[in-house]
Amino acid sequence: MRTPVQGEANRMQKTFRKALMEKKAEILVALGINFRELADPEHRLAAEDNVAHEEFVRLRVNRVLQGQLRQIEDSLERLKMGEYGICESCGAAIPSKRLLAIPWARFCVDCQEQTFSFSVAEAARMEKEY
User: Fold this and answer.
1) Bridge partners of residue 93, in order along the sequence
2) pTM above the 0.90 mark?
């Protein structure tokens, strides 16, 4: 017999899974549109400079979308394994509010801020060196 806590946890898992699947579908549609437009022969008849810039932008967007897709698929796997909602850095539970906003979140807010601030500082340091 399920306890009220188990029932709530199961309901939240379904909510997170639905959010992840919806975002995955959205990204797959966007990737499909970008690939079709990149492959469109009529697209190539436009001014060459404009086409090159548009292709560059679309390829960059595709790379970002593919990264998001990988994060979503990783989150779905963690959900299946019972590891979803656990910060990969400190092991604390990621608040439901954060997971509802960013269902593929891998870190709690504190750990994410530490990771992000390090990345920005590291990038700034590297830029000065070169």
Assistant:
1) 86
2) no
Domain range enclosing 7: 1-84
- Distance between CA 40 and CA 34 in Å, rounded? 10
What's the start-to-end Cα distance of the chain, in Å? 63
Same domain for 40 and 100? Answer: no
User: How many domains, in total, are found in the chain?
Assistant: 2
Domain match, 76 and 110 both: no
For each of the chain's 130 residues, which pLDDT tens digit applies? 444 456 677 888 999 999 999 999 999 888 887 666 655 655 555 545 566 777 777 788 888 999 999 999 999 999 999 999 999 999 999 999 999 999 999 999 999 988 776 555 555 554 555 4
